[in-house]
Amino acid sequence: MLSCWLSRLCRGFSTPTGRITHPSRDSLSRTLVLSSQGRIPGEGTEGLCPLNEFSSFVARTNTCGELRSSHLGQEVTLCGWIQYRRQNIFLVLRDFHGLVQVVIPQEESAAAVRKILCEAPVESVVQVSGTVISRPPGQENPKMPTGEIEIKVKTAELLNSCKKLPFEVKDFVKKTEALRLQYRYLDLRSFQMQYNLRLRSQMVMKMREYLCNLHGFVDIETPTLFKRTPGGAKEFVIPSREPGKFYCLPQSPQQFKQLLMVGGLDRYFQVARCYRDEGSRPDRQPEFTQIDIEMSFVDQTGIQRLIEGLLQYSWPNDKDPLVVPFPSLTFAEALASYGTDKPDTRFGMKIIDISDVFRNTEVGFLQDALSKPQGTIKAICISEGTYLKRKDLESIRKFAADHFNQEVLPVFPKASRNWNSPVAQSILEEQGSELIRLMEIREDDVVLLTAGEHKKACSVLGKLRLECADLLEARGLVLRDPALFSFLWVVDFPLFLPKEENPGELESAHHPFTAPHPSDIQLLYTEPEKVRSLHYDLVLNGSEIGGGSIRIHDAELQRYILATLLKEDVKLLSHLLQALDFGAPPHGGIALGLDRLICLVTGAPSIRDVIAFPKSFRGHDLMSNAPDSLPPEELKPYHIQVSWPADSEAEKSSLNQPYCPES
Ligand code: ASP
C-alpha cells in the first residue's frame, strides 16, 4: 500500500516522461524577467509572465503592452481601459501590460466606431479590433515600448462606461493614501501596484517551486479558527455560538506546524495568513502573510542554508544575484556594534567601546559613568559628519536626551570646526590622538560620544547611527546604495527577556517553544536569564524579515519552561505537551515575513503597497468600513452585548448610517 501511494505522489512531481522536474537556472532566467523598482510609470509590466500566455481563454488576441513592429499587419483584438484621448484622433488604451495607441477612424463609414471611441469617458473599458500598422515616420514614440506601432481600428465596443472618478488613475498623479485605500480597486489599476503584486506572485511561485518541487516540502493549510494560547502577540477574538466560548485567530501556525512534525509530515510549508491585534505600527498589518516552514531532523545551519537557497532561487533576475551564505552575527555582537538586533549593515559607523581611552579623564560625566560597575564610554564615527548642520547635531542631542535620558557629545577631532563645547575641547586635548587612532577618524568625520551602562549606551548610539544616516542622506550623501540588499543572520539570542510590564518576570525572546542552547541547559535551573537559545533571525537592510528556532521536543523540558519559568497555564497547551510525549522528532523551522520582504525588494514606501487590500494605519478597511457595528439582534446568537463607552453615542447612532472614511 505504502509504495503505491508514494509512487503516485512521486509521479505527481515528474514530467510525462517520468523524469523529476528540476528547472534549470537557464530556463528560469528565460521565464522570469522582472524589472527594477524605478519603473517608468506607463511602461507596463511586460516580462512578468513566464510563458506569455496572457491572452488564452479570453476575448482579446493580444495585450496592449506586447505589440511591436514584429506584429505589423496582424489583425488583433484588444481589451483595456481608456487612458487618454487626443483631439478625437488618437486614443491610448491601457491594460496591465502597457499602453498602445489606437487611431480613431475619421471616415464617414466608421461613424459608429468613432462615436464610441470619442464619447466614452476616460477609464471606460472598451474592446477594439483592427490592424497593427506602423506609425508615420517621425511620429514614433521611443519612450513607449509600443511606440513604433498603432492600431487601425475596424470595430469597437464599449464594454462598460466609467463615471466621474475620485482621482486620476495615472501613476504620476499624487493622491492621499486614505483616498487610494478607499478606492483600492482603482488604485490597483496603477502600473506600480500591478508591478508590486505581480512580482509578489512570481516570487511566491518560485518559492513554491523550490520548496515543493526541488526539496520535497508539503504545502499544508492549517486552521484559522483556533484558541487563545499563551505567550507571544495579542490575538483577535472570534465569538462562537456557545455561551462564553471564543475562537482566536492564530498569530502564526506555530503549534500546528510542530504537530505536523509529530505527524510525520517532516517538511511542511505554507503561505500562511497570520493575525496579530497589536495596534498600529507603520510597518505592520493586523493580518499579514508568512512563508512558514518547519522541518524534522534539522539543525540551525540546515534551516539557514535552506532559506539562503530559497531566496537565491526566487530572487528577481534583474537584481544582482544573492551571495550566500549570508553573514552572521551573534545577538551580543549585533547589540555591541550596532545597538540593535536588526542592524542595517549597508553602511559602517559601528559603535566602538572607548572606555580605555578615558580611564583617567577629568571630564565629570565620563568619570561618573566609569565609576559605576557596568559603566562604559561608547562612540560612533560619522564619516563626513561635518556635512551635518549645527541644528542637526542639536536635534540629535535632544533626541538622545528626550528618548533615552542620555547625554551625547559631538566631537570634531580633526575638523577645523570651531563650535566644539568646552567639554569637547578638553577631551581633544587629553585623549584626541588616541581617539583618532582607535576610531580611524578622518578629516571630515564627527564623533558622537556617550557614556553609561553597556546596553543603554549601545541602544542610543544605534538609534543615532540611523538618524545620522537619514540626516546625511537628506544633505545629499549616499550611505545606503538603493540597489544593495544586505542580508544578515542574527543568532544566539537570549532565551528569555525581562517582561516589559514587570521586569522581575521573564518572557520568551522568540516564543516559548524555542530550544535552549545546548551549552546553556544547566543555567536553566540556576540563572535562566543567562540562557542563550537556538533562535535565529534574518535581517535585510535593517528590517527583520524572518525568524525561527530549533524547538523543544522534550515534553518535560517544555513543561518546565512554560510552568516554572514563564508561569503560563500549561493546561492551555496540553495538546502540544501530550503530542511531544508521543515520539516527537527533533525539529525546527522559520517564518519569513512575505509583505516586508516584497516591500524591500520592490523598494515600495510601505508594506501596504505590496498588499492588494491592506488595512489603514488604524486597522480599518477604508473601502468597506470594516470593522463595522452589528445590530444587537445579530449579536444575540453569540451571547454578546456591547457595553458602549460613555462617549460613544455618536458611534452607536451611526449603526446603519453611511460611512465616512478616516482621513
Ligand atoms: N512562528 C514564528 C513566528 O511567527 C516563527 C517560527 O518560529 O518559525 O515568529
What features would you describe in this structure?
The chain is α+β, with helices and mostly antiparallel strands and 663 residues long. It is built from 18 helices and 21 strands. The protein has helices at residues 2-12, 25-31, 111-119, 177-182, 184-187, 191-214, 254-262, 300-314, 331-338, 364-371, 390-404, 422-439, 454-474, 555-565, 574-581, 594-602, 632-635, 649-653; strands at 75-86, 90-95, 98-103, 125-134, 149-160, 218-219, 237-239, 246-248, 267-275, 287-296, 328-330, 351-353, 375-382, 408-411, 446-453, 487-491, 496-498, 506-508, 535-540, 543-550, 587-593. It has an eight-stranded mixed β-sheet with strand order 6-9-10-21-20-19-16-11, sandwiched between helices. Strands 1-2-3-5-4 form a five-stranded mixed β-barrel. Helix 6 (191-214) crosses helix 8 and helix 9 crosses helix 13. It is globular. Aspartic acid (ASP) binds next to strand 20 and strand 21. Residues 252, 254, 547-549, 589-591 line the site of aspartic acid.
